[in-house]
Amino acid sequence: MTRFRTSRTCLNTALFVPVAFGLLSVLLGPDSNWDLRNYHLYNAFAFFNNKLTIDFAPGGFQNFFNPLLDLPYYAGISNLPPRLVAFLLGWIQGLNFILILGICRTALPSLALADIYRIPVLLAMAGCLTVNFLSEIGSTMGDNVTSLFYLSALLIILRVIPKLIANYWRSLPMLSAAGLLMGMGTGLKLTNAIYAVALCAALLTIAVPFSTRLKIAAGFGIAVLAGIALTGGYWFYTMCQTYGNPLFPQFGSWFPNPLALSIGVADTGWLPKSVWQYLLWPFLISADAKLVGQLAVHQIIWAIVYLLLIACAAVGVFRRFGVIARAAVVQATGPEPVQRYVVTVVCIGFVVWVALFSIYRYLVAIEVLTPLFVFILFNRLLPYTHAKRAAKWAIAAATLVVLAGGYKTWGHEGWDTQAFHVDVPLLSDPAHTTVLIAAGDPLSWLTVAFPPTVAFAQIEGNFPKGPGFNGHIKSMLTKRAGPAFVLLQGHHDEAAGRTQKIQNILDDLRLTRSASGCDFLIWATEKFKLKASFAKDPVAGKAIACQLILSAEKARRTAEAANLEEVVKARAALEPFGLKMREQQCSIHAAGIGDSKERYQWCPIWQAPAAIPRQIRVESTGGS
Q1: What burial letters (b/e) apply to 266-279, b meaning 16+ CB within 10 Å?
Q2: What global pTM score does this model have?
Q3: Are 376 and 463 within one domain?
Q4: How many Å separate Cα 1 from the centre of its chain?
Q5: Which of 253, 213, 246, 254 is nearest to 228 (CA)?
Q6: Angle at 419 between CA 414 and CA 420, to 5 degrees
Q7: C-beta separation of 603 from 567 below 8 A
Q8: Contact 295, 285 (CB under 8 A)
Q9: Are residues 307 and 437 both part of a single domain?
Q10: Can you list the pairs that 414-417 forms with residues at least 24 positions away whose Cβ atoms lie under 8 Å?
Q11: Does residue 614 form part of some domain?
Q12: Is residue 622 part of a domain?
């Protein structure tokens, strides 16, 4: 590892790593995660086209999140080559490495000369190889983009801590800048509030008079609020003017609105269920990541962190009662103020995360600091040489678990010339057309291909429907007085393409070009009970003696049954609104992200005269 022992190689690494993540993002393919399909793409489209007063929650309650974070990505894919957009997204996410590197160098100023560049670089690399960070490379979820604001704020605070101790007033401008950055990140994505709380609360632990601590924390907090107002104030004001709730539909118990239920945070299903779970949560989520998210990832870093904290607490107790001599276990000076601050921020941030969300991906910006955290605590427990060796093996083991198959992405597709493609049905009157989305699957991304004047509303999804919800949807239909449709999830024969590829391979191998080859294929499918069969009738115009047929036919029948099931569910969803669909006139249309080939169903609906005035007309898309 001598290559990381000079400032030049340290600088070169800082320049190279973001580029490497940009290339990784391109290699993964275009982003196709659930949140993108549900609201990241739509929210930006709706903002640019003033859809707030036209649509109503086509993707559920997330459609009311601040769209500012999603605007650059939407503008990029609308004007730039998709691969370039993916590279830029990965490169921006890779900038976290530079900030983590700066934090490590600031927190470890007293390293041995041989380690002064090498250890910070390796710790920063390990931070970027944590399971959460890797899973979101090339993703639009935003957790490892807004982490740049938190890490920048933390780096500034670490640099200013010595000045805070010496002179509070002279350090106030830098402290305010840190708070402003943290607030801007929180305004873009409200889940970052856990980091703002952690940074502010940890300031109360700095070794200065208590009155000064209060001034420091208050100044930082005011700057955070200013940052939130800067990036989120406009949207909060818009939500308040439109729905009487700056966080609509969440926190409806504070800001009642008949459209939504009186709830707090909308997604609390991931929180621990008992006191024992709260106490053992780092171990439990290391054993089963499905407790805190949908991805079956594997990591052990939080179990290591928790064990080290327990060990430090035990050593502190033993030392206090004289069971262990101070010099035998720790350096007499103890951790430096900046190290103590890092440890405190990670601990407070984790506790607040468990209490508020327990959704794993919201922990990205803290998890990237866990290698540094582990290194600091080992140095608290052991002499430097032993601590360095123990930290190396612990961090290496945690990283190996991730790289050996521990992480998954949130979804990517293959590349195509277009980022998105949607076959839009013919619309005779877009300005008065209303489309209801009756599907639990995220379909609002399809709406960006339709004329902006078409109104969309989701009637079956995750929006917390209040007593006025149904009336609002009926009112939309009444006021627009135009064609009405329902949009459903569609299914198609996904096996047909794979069947054709297999057929082409068998043709190239000449196994389907002779009677003996066909006999072998038939024997093989029967012997190994494969879900396929071969017809020995020659294909017209080709020198083919047999062809693979059964699996495609079976898949076609399966797709038809799945489409019918979606229609049945949509029929039930429409009933409370006095609406019925013209099922015989449903049509299936193609769509996709990148090279994916997907389908959606498009069905006209009619309204009972008692529910909707007669001037609303229904448009046919063809069929019997």
Answers
A1: beeebbbeeeeeee
A2: 0.87
A3: no
A4: 34
A5: 246
A6: 105
A7: yes
A8: no
A9: no
A10: 414/29, 414/594, 414/595, 414/596, 415/29, 415/30, 415/82, 415/83, 415/594, 415/595, 416/82, 416/592, 416/594, 416/595, 417/82
A11: no
A12: no
**b/e map of 429-439 (b: 16 or more CB within 10 Å)?**
eeebbbbbbbb
Q: What is the pLDDT of residues 104-156, one digit of tens each?
A: 999 998 888 889 999 999 999 999 999 999 999 999 999 999 999 999 999 99
Regarding whether 579 and 436 lie in a shared domain, the answer is yes
pLDDT of residue 611 exceeding 60: no
Q: Which one of 406, 431, 462 terminates a domain?
A: 406
Domain presence at residue 616: no
The candidate with the shortest Cα–Cα distance to 32, out of 609, 615, 554, 596, is: 596
> What's the confidence (pLDDT) of residue 165?
76
* Predicted confidence (pLDDT) per residue in 217-229, tens digit: 999 999 999 999 9
State both tokens at 163.
């000045």
Q: Are 463 and 260 in contact (CB under 8 A)?
A: yes
Q: Where does the pLDDT of residue 232 fall: very low under 50, low under 70, confident under 90, or very high at 90 and above?
A: very high
Q: Which of 375, 406, 437 is the last residue of a domain?
A: 406
| Whether residue 265 has pLDDT greater than 90 | no
Could you tell me the pLDDT band of residue 554, with boundaries at 50, 70 and 90? low
Q: What is the pLDDT of residue 623?
A: 39
Retrieve residue 309's tokens: 């904290």
Total domains, the chain: 3
CB 312 within 8 A of CB 381: yes
Average pLDDT over residues 494-520: 71
**3-state SS, residue 524:** helix
Q: Is residue 621 part of a domain?
A: no
Q: Clarify whether residues 366 and 464 are in a common domain.
A: no
214 pLDDT tier (thresholds 50, 70, 90): very high
Closest CA to 314 of 303, 323, 327, 302: 323
Same domain, 338 and 383: yes
Do 486 and 373 lie in one domain? The reply is no
Whole domain around residue 438: which residue ranges? 420-492+555-607
257 CA to centre of own chain: 28
Q: Are residues 465 and 357 in the same domain?
A: no
> Looking at this protein, which amino acid is placed at residue 290?
K
Identify whether residues 318 and 336 lie together within a single domain.
yes
Residue 297, Cβ density class (10 Å: 0-12 exposed, 13-18 middle, ≥19 buried): buried
pLDDT tens by residue, 399-452: 999 999 878 999 999 999 899 999 999 999 999 999 999 977 899 999 999 999
d(CA 461, CA 37): 13
